[in-house]
């Protein structure tokens, strides 16, 4: 089922990196909605978790945002000519990683079982690989709901409740 | 950021200045980080509020960037 961010929350929720990034970055399309959602999760004491993969995604976007802002070039191009360029994002990455841990977000490991399940979800749910991994970890740890702004997760709403504020998914 | 320049270590415990401890409120958490230039201890505000909006950015399609990170960046491959 597709569920609005403003609807009743479950006791436990898998948080996709898109929600965290939108809340963190002022330029995210769903910044206000994701910020309110995180506050609600805090206020209602909802147990939250995400896969270690999410940290990779969050770090990548934070580095990309900072390097592109400072250099005016795509991250990889800038990195190849000057690997030190990523150091400009260090403060953001450190701060946000600490905040996530202080919030009490559980970081779930991506093990072989999860990867093999993810492989099947590629074909069964027509998901891209990283999205398949998120779904596999969600189900492996028995979460019944996932929060995301990624419209590709619409196809898994028969397996888990998908909480979102993205109007493309709520249509 | 609140930095303590000097701390004592006694029987495996780090002793923090009384003034620093007294400023903490009951609900405060303390964040301790070992940095290149020493130990940093600071009262931690609500981590959710600290995280929200802490990165000022131009408008970004985060969902698209997460999906297409290789294609967008690797213009030299093909």
Could you describe the 3D structure shown?
The complex is a heterodimer of chains A (171) and B (78). By secondary structure, chain A is of the alpha/beta class. Chain A has helices at 17-24, 31-44, 52-71, 75-81, 90-103, 112-124, 129-140, 167-170, and strands spanning 2-4, 12-15, 47-51, 106-108, 145-147, 161-164. Chain A has a single domain (2-165), classed as 5'-nuclease (Rossmann fold, 3-Layer(aba) Sandwich), CATH 3.40.50. In chain A, 54% of the residues lie in helices and 13% in strands. Chain A has a 6-stranded parallel sheet with strand order 1-6-5-2-3-4. In chain A, helix 1 (17-24) runs parallel beside helix 3 and helix 6 packs across helix 7. Chain A is globular and about 45 Å long. The two termini of chain A are 12 Å apart. The mean pLDDT of chain A is 95. Chain B is of the alpha+beta class and 78 residues long. Chain B has helices at residues 18-23, 47-51, 62-67, 69-73, and strands at 8-10, 13-15, 29-35, 38-44. In chain B, the strands form 2 sheets. In chain B, strands 1-2 form a two-stranded antiparallel sheet. The termini of chain B are far apart. The A-B interface holds A 17-18, 20-29, 31, 35, 38-39, 42, 57, 60-62, 64-65, 69, 74-77, 80, 92, 94-96, 98-100, 102-103, 128, 130, 149-152, 166 and B 29, 31, 33, 44, 46-48, 50-63, 65-67, 69, 72-76.
Biggest chain pair contact, residues each? A-B, 45 and 30 residues
Query: What's the number of structural domains of chain A?
Result: 1
The CATH topology of chain A corresponds to Rossmann fold
Shape descriptor of chain B: elongated
Outline:
The complex is a heterodimer of chains A (171) and B (78). By secondary structure, chain A is an alpha/beta fold.
What's the layout of helices and strands?
The complex is a heterodimer of chains A (171) and B (78).
Chain A: E1 2-4, E2 12-15, H1 17-24, H2 31-44, E3 47-51, H3 52-71, H4 75-81, H5 90-103, E4 106-108, H6 112-124, H7 129-140, E5 145-147, E6 161-164, H8 167-170
Parallel strand pairs in A: 1-6, 2-3, 2-5, 3-4, 5-6
Helix pairs in contact in A: 1-2, 1-3, 3-5, 6-7
Chain B: E1 8-10, E2 13-15, H1 18-23, E3 29-35, E4 38-44, H2 47-51, H3 62-67, H4 69-73
Antiparallel strand pairs in B: 1-2, 3-4
């Amino acid at each position: 089922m597709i569920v609005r961010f403003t609807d009743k929350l479950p006791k436990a929720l898998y948080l996709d990196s898109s929600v965290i990034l939108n809340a963190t970055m002022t330029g995210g399309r769903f910044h206000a909605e994701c910020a309110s959602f995180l506050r609600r999760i805090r206020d209602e004491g909802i147990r939250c978790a995400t896969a270690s993969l999410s940290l990779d995604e969050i770090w990548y976007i934070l580095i990309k945002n900072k390097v592109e802002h400072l250099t005016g070039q795509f991250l990889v191009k800038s990195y190849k000519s000057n690997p030190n360029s990523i150091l400009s994002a260090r403060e953001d990455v450190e701060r946000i990683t600490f905040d996530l841990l202080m919030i009490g977000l559980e970081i779930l490991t991506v093990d072989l079982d999860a990867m093999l399940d993810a492989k099947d979800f590629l074909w069964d749910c027509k998901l891209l690989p990283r999205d398949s991994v998120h779904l596999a970890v969600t189900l492996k740890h028995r979460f019944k709901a996932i929060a995301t702004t990624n419209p590709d997760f619409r196809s898994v709403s028969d397996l888990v409740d998908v909480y979102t504020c993205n109007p493309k998914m709520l249509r | 950021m609140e930095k303590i320049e000097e701390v004592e270590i006694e029987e495996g415990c780090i002793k923090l200045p009384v003034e620093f401890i007294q400023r903490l409120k009951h609900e405060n958490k303390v964040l301790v980080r070992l940095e290149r230039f020493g130990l940093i201890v600071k009262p931690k505000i609500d981590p959710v509020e600290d995280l929200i909006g802490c990165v000022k950015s131009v408008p970004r399609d985060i969902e698209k960037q997460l999906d297409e990170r290789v294609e967008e960046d690797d213009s030299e491959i093909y």
